[in-house]
Structures are given as structure tokens and as C-alpha cells.
Amino acid sequence: MTIELYRRYRRALKAAPWTGRIMPYGWSPFPQTLYWEPFLYSEMLNDYAREIANSINDLTHRERRLRAWAAVLKGLTPRKVMDAQHELIADVATVGLGLPYVIRSRFLFATAHLSHQANRARLSDWSDDLPTDENIYMETADRFGRGWRRYRRLAQRLQRIGGGDFRASTGDFRNRYQHRFPQRVSQGLTQLVSREVGEGGAVSYGIGGRAPLHLDDIADALVVQRDRSYAAFDAFRALVDEQASLMLDKWPQPGSES
From residue 233, how far is each of 49, 60, 152, 175, 239 by CA, in Å? Predict the structure, then answer.
């Protein structure tokens, strides 16, 4: 039955409309021959931009795949839904629900590193004081990016990725999946008993469980995050253009000074 379900899915995917974009590759504004200072930035950019594009494009494809699976599941018996969920759907949904957090974190990591390197061209007292990779967060990107005019728009757009509205609409799935017990996908109840601590420390217990997340609802939430990721990518490119322009003014391509 799994093979037949997959055949149905492929037909549904082929019929599903394409509403997304593909983030581009190979758009670095730097020439191939560079002085050492912009070379480091350029190599980081090529690596980071490719991986960020991969992540966003993955989100785009997963949202569309979930739409197709939602169409396939309509009318199936609970047993067949369980088979599809277990063999084919759960991984697509689980990774997709975590991607907004991944994308935001990768943007912040790349922005902190690139802005730190670009500040060599902007600051006379530049020092190599970027925190270690495991200690790079939003405040790190703010610290090193705030001197760039186009950073603010990127920061505003990044704050909207994986924000409170996404956590609310998906039951804070990513956090619960990694640390507690998330809602199921498509079918099944979780957390039949929940403990709540109210104001003044009053404790109460709820009985009833959490309903599953349905594929159409997951896809609806992901498409919002997808479009916000597109907007952040555009702002990221604008910041890179600003930084590259200043760096190439200070350290032009070798041989171009004459």
C-alpha cells in the first residue's frame, strides 16, 4: 500500500500549483582575484549564501510536498493515514517545521561573520573580536552589523521568521519536539494530562490531550515563513552589496589600481 500511496502523492505533486521562488546561487559581487582581506569575506559569502539558499529552497519544496500529501490523505482510512504518516510524511513535516528556526539562525551566523570581516574596511580600530561560532546569536549580528545602513532592514525581517505567530499556529512544534512532546502530525493525541501553574503558584491539571497538526495547516504556516525567508534573502543580498562596495573601494582587484 505504501507504493500506491507514493504513486498517488507523485500525481498530486505534479498537479500542485507552483507558488514559490528559488533562491539564486552564484551571485557574489566579488571578482575571482582579490587581496587577502576581501578574499576571506568572499569565500565565507560563497559558502554561507549557498547553504542559506539551500535551506530556503528546501522549505519551499517541503511546503509544496505537504500540500500534495494533504490531498492524498483525504478519504483514506485511519490505518492508511497512519501508514503514510509513519513511512512517508512525518519526516517531511518534522524537518519542515524546524526549518524557519534553522534559516533564521543561519542568516544570523552568516551576517555576524560577514559584517565582522567587512568592518575591516570601515573601522580604523578593527580587532578580531567576534565570539566563537557556538556563541553567535541575534545580539552578535546586531553588534557587528549595526554600522551598516542596510543591516536594519535585514534584522527586522529576520525577527519575523519563526516568530510568535508561527510558534502559536504550530503548537511550538520545534521546541516541543526537541525538549518535550509535540503534537502529532495528521492523527493521534498527545499530552492527555497537562500541568499548569497559574498566578500565585496555583496548580491545575487539564485532561483531554492535544489534537494533531493537519497538513494543510502546517503548509499554511510554512508558506508565511517561506515568504518571510525570501524577503530576508533579498535584504541579505542588499547588505552584502553595501559591504562589498566599500571593501572593493579599499582593496580593489589586484592590478586594477593602474
Answer: 9, 13, 13, 24, 10
Q: Does residue 73 fall inside a structural domain?
A: yes
Amino acid identity for residue 252 in this structure = P
Three cell numbers written together for 194:
497537562
Q: Model's pTM, two decimal places?
A: 0.92
CA angle (104, 109, 112) in 5-degree steps: 120
Contact assessment for residue 89 and residue 8, using Cβ atoms and an 8 Å cutoff = no
The number of distinct structural domains making up the chain is 1
Structural domain boundaries enclosing 120? 2-182+214-250
Please calculate the CA angle 15-20-21 and round it to the nearest 5 degrees: 130
In a domain, 194, yes or no: no
pLDDT digits (tens, 9 = 90+) for 41-92: 999 999 999 999 999 999 999 999 999 999 999 988 888 888 888 888 889 9
What residues contact residue 68 under an 8 Å CB cut-off, 6+ apart? 9, 12, 13, 15, 16
